[in-house]
Amino acid sequence: MITWNTLTSAQQKDALTRPVMALAGSVKSKVSEIINAVEQRGDEAVLELTRQFDCNTLKTLPLSSRQLTELASQVNDVTRQAIEAAYANIKRFHIAQQQPAVVVETRPGVICEQHSDAIESVGLYIPGGSAPLPSTVLMLGVPAQVAGCKTRILCTPPNVNGTIAPEIAYAASLCGIQKVFLCGGAQAIAAMALGTQTITKVDKIYGPGNRFVTEAKQQVSQRNDGAAIDMPAGPSEVLVIADASANAQFVAADLLSQAEHGEDSQAILVCSSKEVIEQTQRAVESQLQVLSRQSTASVAMKNARYILTQSVDESVLVSNQYAPEHLIVQTEDARALLPAIKNAGSVFLGAWSPESAGDYASGTNHVLPTYGFARTYSSLGLSDFVRRYTVQEITQQGLQEIGQTICVLAEAEGLDAHKRAVSIRLQALEEASK
Amino acid sequence: MITWNTLTSAQQKDALTRPVMALAGSVKSKVSEIINAVEQRGDEAVLELTRQFDCNTLKTLPLSSRQLTELASQVNDVTRQAIEAAYANIKRFHIAQQQPAVVVETRPGVICEQHSDAIESVGLYIPGGSAPLPSTVLMLGVPAQVAGCKTRILCTPPNVNGTIAPEIAYAASLCGIQKVFLCGGAQAIAAMALGTQTITKVDKIYGPGNRFVTEAKQQVSQRNDGAAIDMPAGPSEVLVIADASANAQFVAADLLSQAEHGEDSQAILVCSSKEVIEQTQRAVESQLQVLSRQSTASVAMKNARYILTQSVDESVLVSNQYAPEHLIVQTEDARALLPAIKNAGSVFLGAWSPESAGDYASGTNHVLPTYGFARTYSSLGLSDFVRRYTVQEITQQGLQEIGQTICVLAEAEGLDAHKRAVSIRLQALEEASK
Fold first, then answer.
1. What is residue A130's predicted lDDT score, i.e. its pLDDT?
2. Is A94 known as a binding-site position?
3. Does position A264 have pLDDT exceeding 80, yes or no?
4. A352 vs B394: CB contact, 8 Å cut-off?
5. In this complex, which of B79, B402, B412 lies closest to A361 when CB atoms are compared?
6. In whole angstroms, what is the distance from residue B377 CA to residue A289 CA?
7. So what's the ipTM on this one?
8. Do A394 and B352 touch (CB under 8 A)?
9. Which domains does chain B have, with CATH numbers?
10. Which of A36, A247, A270, B132 is least enclosed, having the fewest CB within 10 Å?
């Protein structure tokens, strides 16, 4: 337990410092080799790597739409209903994010507008691993569908049998994904960014992944012929603000639900009650015993931090400094703190709003900025699937209204032709009026 | 003149290919050296480089607020009024972009919200060069001010006398810039991204610059301890769609106003009338003669392309494929084409809407995605100065409503602790109701 106000500001900074994300140079060069291979040999390289890493008998990358339908139909009723319920809530929340066009007449006859339009083609990446991630399919697939992105493809590594989980297939079909390709890792990212014979080149790539995927996304986003990406990635993290009114069992359960994600997950409790911290520590110990991912969670919890503050307000300042991906607030009047809260990716207010709700089913997106990126990056939303562009339409009167301003500024900046593009028009108007 | 429909699709692609932005390896390594120097030696390194490149007698990096006020007061009345008029229009348009919070009750008792909040500290970069760029100060400073970014600093290289243009100072003071630092190039970007003794470390950096600045922005944005950046950069470009009704003199003036930006500027006319193309070519020749930046513009115009199409609709398809930074539409009913127009950063409708209007004074932002990035990146706007985050507040009833969905999905994904964070709460509710 760390008592915040006994620390120097350097020690405070230390207490909130995330472990360095040191990427082995070998990962960078391996990824760059894979990107080169995919660029040069296309499908052949992707298939080769997929056989090597995922399924050595795989014949072809695309999952046919018959296979997709067949797989989707295998989902059991209970899971199907849960996927549908989550899909409906996520869709509702992302539809609500649609923005009307902005239209302003800044001066008489000078109409300025801001519109948004779907990014034409998007590629969604769903990692493989020990269990399928249908929730991530929904978090990426729903906003792409609501935005109206014309081309929506999905890459996910096949299992050893050369297929994917029915849950993934069902979620993908709900989101109207047009093509599913059986590949993962850096090779999948390279294929979507550069295109191959069968995999469509897309404009932007979304989704989580291991360090090879993350590095591949960084590398393709730096290429002019590559693809944009959703946001930089780091280990998942939660910060819980609690006070004396908090239920320590709930707080412990929330910290552990973060910790089970991975050994590098960060869980931080910032609490103005010493008793609640101690109760939480005991509750963590006892709840850990029954978890299926106990070994992962206990490694992560070794790095958990318990910070004692003097007040809830001080707790908020600690959180603002850390800039957590997830912020859970279990205090007496959680909503009252909202105006003071800065730099959090997603905020969960009150005792009945566990992070799992946002991870799966409430409607908010679970793709969030980690590693302090919440200071500048946004929670994934509809606007990440659209491009905003401006439009202006100026009438003759409008140009007369602002023409002088343009000419003076263009002259101040030494841009003669800019000035002439206006003066030639003003002259034409003058001549016409004679 | 290129006749579009006589080209194969490979030739069409070729005709719209931008020159490769080949960055000499020496730029990359030079920039990385500068960033290291600033990281290690702070102000000392920045001052050293500024003396070397900009003003060898410079004593200190910050411009005092007295100096700023003094400089600002030197602007002549005509220019002051023009800066004020542009400021007012830009402000109006960016205020209109403010978004209300999104609040949706996705299920009874499940409240999902999306809010936005200003990015706390921003750094604006204004390049030096032969003439001052007050318009760019406004384009970056106004949205930062409207968003309410708490810390707003500006870096710009000093002239040989160790000062800056009064126009820059006046625009900066209108935008409420708190600190101006006399430095430019990669060293200014490094200083804002990493912080020095006198230059504040900022969360996000905005603004145009030469290849050293651009490369420095890329490099700091890839560092976990660096800063986010506005968007990738490339040479400026315009595409004009015209038909037989277009005024060739206006079209020529618009192409030239792009061409005077730099020798690598791209100007493309896509026109369904052979006559208008020929008239425009002649008008370009004659207008070039009187331009002050004739030598720059004529180099750029050597790479200009004149593409003849069979219809306005075909012209729109060409533009969509190119994804221009600026798109000027001089056709009979320009607005009617808007729904079909994709992938343009900013669209100028009709004969009386020259690009210069948006560059300076109409209200729209002139920081726009170039080099085809308009496919995924947006025109700079208020939302680039805020972060969106989500909030959820779930009632007891709400959790009972979606609890089962969360538990089923968490189980499908093998995330036991996620499930327990809900079930432990549902159990508590059940016990309480007994």
1. 79
2. no
3. yes
4. yes
5. B402
6. 48
7. 0.96
8. yes
9. 2-18+234-363 (3.40.50.1980), 25-98+119-229 (3.40.50.1980), 395-433 (no CATH)
10. A36
